[in-house]
Design goal:
alpha/beta; two-stranded parallel sheet; 3 helices; elongated; five-stranded mixed sheet; 37% helix; Chitinase A, domain 3; 166 residues; Helix Hairpins
Length: 166
C-alpha cells in the first residue's frame, strides 16, 4: 500500500471532514431514508432513491478517508531542518518569468491539492522541479502548457496565514 503524504493542516482538514460526515451527514441521510420509506411504495419514491444514492456517496467517501488516513504520513516542514531548501509542506514564493509576476505555492499531498489556493501536489511537475532547491535557484520544467521558468524568491515552513515565524 502506498503511503499518503499530508501536511499537518491537511490532516486536520481531512479528519474534520470525516467527523462531519459521520456525525452530521450520515444521521441526516438515515433520517431522510426512514422518512421516504414512511411514504410507502419505494419503487416510485424519488426521495428514497435520492437519499440512497447520497448514502452511497457518503459511505464511499467515509471509507476512502478512513483508508487514506490510516496510511497517512503527516509531515510538518518546520520539523525537517530543511535549512532553506524547498521540502514537502513548504510555501514557495516564485518569480514567474513568462507571466512577469510573483506566485506562491505550497507543496502538499495529493488529497490536499487545490491549485486555486496555491496548493500543488508533491508529484506535480512544478513541485518535482522545486523540491530540494533554495532561494535564488532558477528552475525550469515542462508542464502541459509548455516549458515554464521560475526563480525562487522565498521559502517558508509554516501556514500561509502564520506570519509570526517569518
Amino acid at each position: 500500500m502506498d503511503r499518503v503524504l499530508l501536511t499537518t493542516a491537511g490532516s486536520k482538514m481531512l479528519w474534520q471532514e470525516l467527523g462531519r460526515l459521520k456525525r452530521e451527514s450520515r444521521p441526516r441521510i438515515i433520517e431522510a431514508i426512514a422518512e421516504a420509506r414512511a411514504h410507502g411504495d419505494l419503487s416510485e419514491n424519488a426521495e428514497y432513491h435520492a437519499a440512497r444514492e447520497q448514502q452511497g456517496f457518503t459511505e464511499g467517501r467515509i471509507r476512502e478517508l478512513e483508508a487514506k488516513l490510516a496510511r497517512a504520513e503527516v509531515i510538518d516542514p518546520a520539523d525537517l531542518n530543511a535549512a532553506g531548501k524547498v521540502v514537502f509542506g513548504a510555501w514557495v514564493e516564485l518569480w514567474e518569468a513568462e507571466g512577469d509576476r510573483e506566485v506562491t505555492y505550497q507543496i502538499v499531498g495529493e488529497l490536499e491539492t487545490d491549485v486555486s489556493i496555491g496548493k500543488v501536489s508533491h508529484s506535480s511537475p512544478i513541485a518535482r522541479a522545486l523540491l530540494g532547491q533554495e532561494v535564488g535557484d532558477e528552475v525550469e520544467f515542462t508542464a502541459p502548457g509548455g516549458t515554464r521558468r521560475y526563480e525562487i524568491l522565498k521559502v517558508r515552513y509554516q501556514a500561509k496565514s502564520d506570519d509570526a515565524n517569518e
